[in-house]
Design a protein that fits this description.
single chain, mainly beta, Hypothetical Protein Pfu-838710-001, 3 helices, about 45% strand
Length: about 150
Amino acid sequence: MEIERKYLVDPERWLEHRNPTESSFMQQGYLSADPRCTVRIRMTEKNAKITIKGETRGISREEFEYSIPFSDAVDIIKLSVTPLIIKRRYRIKYEDFWWDVDEFFGDNEGLVLAEVELDQEGDMPAVPPWAGAEVSEDPRYMNLALALNPINSW
């Protein structure tokens, strides 16, 4: 089960905290764009994974993720039914939680989002100073939605 909260990030305040050496470049595409069951291929510089996610309910959803051979992912991502999401991910520990901060490129250029994975829906981690409004339940900020309807079209 994936339980996460998502926040907009103030890009200017974020610049003071990010460390480019502790990041990874990602591209991801969707083989299924049905929000009830998405199938995603994600590639970084070093590895590749296929992820199956169930329908989101609140801030939770079922998630199954598996490593796949990088060479397979290179071919599979070409089957994407959506435009690719391109982003750089930073992993930062703030207080007792690990945060993933994504800087988006392409049609989502300028968008910076932070996600924190939780053990329980009721967990309320301290929010870092660079995080802004919570958008956990705003469907526009799901990666699938950003692939289909990027921010430059809003």
